[in-house]
Every structure is written in structure tokens, then in C-alpha cells.
Amino acid sequence: MYKNLWAVAVLAFAVAVGTLQMTVVVPLLPGLARHLGASPTTVSWTLTAGLLSGAVSIPLLSRLGDMYGRRMTSLVALGLLVAGSALGALSDTLAPLIAGRVLQGVAAPLLPLAMGLVRQAVPARRLPAAIGVLSAMIGVGSGGGMILAGLLDGDHRAVFWALTGLGALSFVLVAAVVRETPARAPGRPDLTGAALVAAWLVCLLLAISKGAAWGWTSPLTLGLLAAAVVVAAIWVATARRAESPLIEIPMLVHRRTVGATVASFLLGFALFAAITTVSAVAQGALGATVLQVGIYLLPTTVLMLVVSVLAGALMRRFTASALVTAGSALVTAAALWLAVSRSSSADLYGAATVLGLGVGLGYAALGTMAVEHVEPAKTAAAGGINALVRVVGSSVAGAVGAVVLAAGGAGWSFGVAAVAALLAALFAAAYGNLARKQPA
Q: Over its length of 440 residues, how does the chain's per-residue pLDDT go in tens digits?
């Protein structure tokens, strides 16, 4: 039993470290623009590149984990995180920094891989708690990234060296403590599918991020949006015919998993939109330092961790979909609070507390909601889909948030986050009821 607990703890640490790289860049962007002499729009691709890499890597490495072993695949992801972090720390220009961010993004699949490892190692009665802890590490890592950047005074070199050390420590711990899963799925990795997913996501996010500058009705913007739709359609068609697709489309839209899929996308969007807008408000209107931004978000990080510890007990009394619904409702309340009032530190701390409760509850239960109705051999694939749509939601939030902030201000940005969280609550409730009423 103690070995299993140590394995869960080590995997939770790995997931948190892998998630740090997603948000650690957010408060660094203004300083990077000055340091590299680049425009904010150009520098923002240091954030987008990591998210895009993660979006593609999640289904690809989840599939490789099912085929060749989740422990080995997790070690590969951590090794690339270490390499990318070291490259970023040594970079003086934008191109190698973006390349380093691409390598860092490969750590995004650590959550679904860890879920697969835990399901093989932990008794069924302890599984909801274990998956809840792993899922909550996404929120802990997200908030921790902001705090890490602040503690290191916004110095991108120091931040990337810290990620190098944390990644190396995690690599050693996983190699020493975690055992390999025995299950192996047949087939080959769907590299064509990975390329198609990367292509349509790049087209979509480039159009969203540059649409305001190019013009929303310009041929380039409309062409990229059309290309995203066409390439996405080609990907769906090829995935349905592939023997071992990157993403199993039936699982993506199955009535018993689609609620978790949509809710994960919307919660990922809401969380990322909220924390990036908090960073902008704190540094802009309140004149906060990078460290102070992290401190404002400290209640969010702490409460995500606390809620994750209680998630197992809660899921023995309530369904996963009910907890996701409640968590999403709390996120809605936090975003609405900041949409209406954000002129003082008390507003930021209060809303961050509610946000932490909501995201911690929602993320912890989403992990169970995503995998509870699939066979054990498909756990990593189902978790991969759930993590994929969450990262895509985060990516879209980064692009949409920048446009909304520029056009309408922070109030509108928080309002968009509130709408996304409200829709997540509605989807989780509706599809949770549907999954319980209908046969598998």
C-alpha cells in the first residue's frame, strides 16, 4: 500500500512540474518583450507554442503510452521538458526560446499517462481519490507557475533553470518509484493524425491571435479559419478510417464521455482566461510586481490542493458530474465577481479563493468523469482526450483573452470566462444525467 501511495505522490509531483511550464510564461511576457526587443504579439507565441505542442503531444504520447508503456513514455516527456527548459534558459533570441517552449509542451501528457499508471497500481476503492489528486495538480501547477515566476523576480533564465532542475528531479523519482504498466495496445502511432491536429490548431489560433491586427474579414484571417475547418474535417475523416487513430472520434463524442470533454474544454478556457486577466489587471491597474501577481493567486493554488485531498471522500457521496457542476458554478461566481469589482486587493484575494475552490473541485472530479465509463486499457486514451480539450481550451483562452482585453477591457474578459464556466456547469449536469440513465 505504501508503495502505491509513494507512486501516486511521485506522479502527482510530475504532473505539477509538467503543468508549471504552461503558465510560468504568462507574467514573463512583458519582460521578454523588452529583453528580446520584440512586439507583445510576437512574444506571445512563447506561450502559444508550448500550448500547441501540448495539445498535439497529449493524444500522441497517450497513445504511445498505451502501446509501449506509460512509465517509459512519461520519462521521455520529462526528458524533453528538461531539454526544453535548458534550451530556454540559454536563449538570447526568440527562435530558440520558442523551440525550447515546444519541447517543454511535450510534458502536457503527464496527466493522462499518470492516470493510466495509477489505475493499474491503486485499488478500486482508492482510485477516485488518486485520480482527484492527479487532476488537481493541473490547477496547482498552473498557479504554481505564476508564483515561481514571481519568486525568481520575472527573470526568464532563472525560471527556466528552475524548471530544468524540477524536471530532472521528477525524472529521477519516476524512474526510481513508478512501475511500468503491463498492458500494451496494438497498432502504430498515428503520425498523420498528429500532423493534421497540429495544422488545424495552428491555423485556428493564428487567425484568432492576429485577427484584430489583420482585420477579421481580411483574406488572410478568413483563409486561415477556412483552412482550420477543412483540415479538421480531413483529420476527422482519416481518424475514422485509421486502424489506430490519434484520437478515437467515437470516444470523443460518446454520450458517456462528451460531458466531461466539453466541460474540460470550457473549464480550461475559464481558468486560463481568469488567471491571465488577473495578471494583466494586477500588473496594470494595481501596479503589482510579478511576485505580487503570484501572491494574489496563492489562495487559488492552495485551495486546489486542499480540495484535491478531499476529492476522494466527496466522490464517495456525490457523482463526479455533480462535483464538476458545483465547481464550475463556483468558477462562474469568481469570474463574475471580478467582472463587476476588481479595484482592490481584497477583490483579487476573495475571487481567487472562490476560483480555487471551484477549479479544485471541478478538475479533481473531471478526471474521474472522463475515465469512469471506459475499459482500463483505454484509460490513458480517455484521459488524453480530456487533457487535450483542456489544453485546447487554454490555448483558445490565451488568444481570445488578448483580443477581448484589447477591445473591451478586463471586465469583458472576466465576463467571457464566467460564460464559459457557466456552460461547463450546464454540460456537466446534463450529460452526467444522460450517462447515468442510458446503457453503455
A: 445 778 888 999 999 999 888 888 888 877 787 788 877 667 777 887 888 888 888 878 887 887 888 999 999 999 999 999 999 999 888 889 999 999 999 998 898 899 888 887 777 777 777 877 787 787 678 778 878 888 888 788 999 999 999 999 999 999 999 988 665 666 678 888 888 988 998 888 888 877 877 888 899 999 999 999 999 999 999 988 887 777 777 777 766 677 788 888 999 899 888 888 888 888 777 888 888 888 888 888 788 778 876 776 787 788 888 899 999 999 999 999 999 999 889 999 999 999 989 988 888 788 777 776 666 666 656 666 777 788 788 878 877 877 787 777 889 999 999 999 999 999 888 876 665 565 54
Angle between helices 2-23 and 127-151 (to 10 degrees): 40
CATH number at residue 342: 1.20.1250.20
- Please tell me the total number of residues recorded for the chain in this structure: 440
Residues 26 and 76 in one domain: yes
Query: Residue for cell digits 519568486?
Result: 151
Distance separating alpha carbons of residues 13 and 78, to the nearest angstrom: 12
Give dist(CA 185, CA 65) in Å, integer: 9
Residues 209 and 343 grouped into a single domain: no
Q: Based on the fold, state whether residues 365 and 231 are members of the same structural domain.
A: no
Residue 76: all three cell numbers together: 521521455
Q: How far is CA 95 from CA 90, 268, 395, in A?
A: 12, 27, 20
Q: Are residues 40 and 91 in the same domain?
A: yes
pTM of the model: 0.81
Same domain, 155 and 247: yes
Number of domains present in the structure of the chain = 2
Count of alpha carbons within 13 angstroms of residue 276, beta-carbon side: 30
- Distance separating alpha carbons of residues 84 and 164, to the nearest angstrom: 8
Give the Cα separation of 245 and 189 in Å (integer): 8
**Alpha carbons 384 and 62: distance in angstroms, whole number:** 6
User: Within a 10 A sphere around the Cβ of 341, how many other Cβ atoms?
Assistant: 14
Q: Please indicate, yes or no, whether residues 89 and 121 belong to a single structural domain of this protein.
A: yes
CA distance 329 to 41: 33
Quick one: 233 and 267 in the same domain? no
Report the candidate in 17, 62, 15 with the shortest Cα–Cα distance to residue 384.
Answer: 62
**By residue range, what is the domain housing residue 29?**
2-190+242-437
Distance CA 264, CA 289 (A): 31
Number of Cβ within a 10 Å radius of residue 57: 27
